[in-house]
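Supplementary Methods. Inverse-folding protocol.

Structures were first reduced to a discrete structure-token string of length 77. This string, shown here, constituted the complete conditioning input.
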């Protein structure tokens, strides 16, 4: 299982809706609205790195208001 933190920069006023929409997705373990340079941090898990990549590019990037993401894959816990 691959775990990754996705740091999401949003257009103003969209972060609450993003959290509500993605919170129930099976790949999403946590969704948090935060302060600082990013607006939302998501913890996601999937079977392999390609599936994590596909989730970020096809699901997260397709949401209204998403400007850019930075994904950090967990190497060790």
């Amino acid at each position: 299982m691959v775990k990754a933190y996705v740091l999401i920069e949003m257009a103003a006023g969209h972060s609450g809706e993003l959290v509500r929409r993605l919170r129930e997705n099976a790949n999403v373990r946590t969704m948090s609205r935060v302060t600082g340079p990013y607006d939302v941090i998501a913890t996601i898990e999937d079977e392999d790195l390609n599936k994590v990549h596909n989730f970020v590019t096809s699901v997260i990037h397709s949401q209204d208001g998403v400007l850019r993401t930075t994904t950090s894959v967990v190497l060790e816990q």
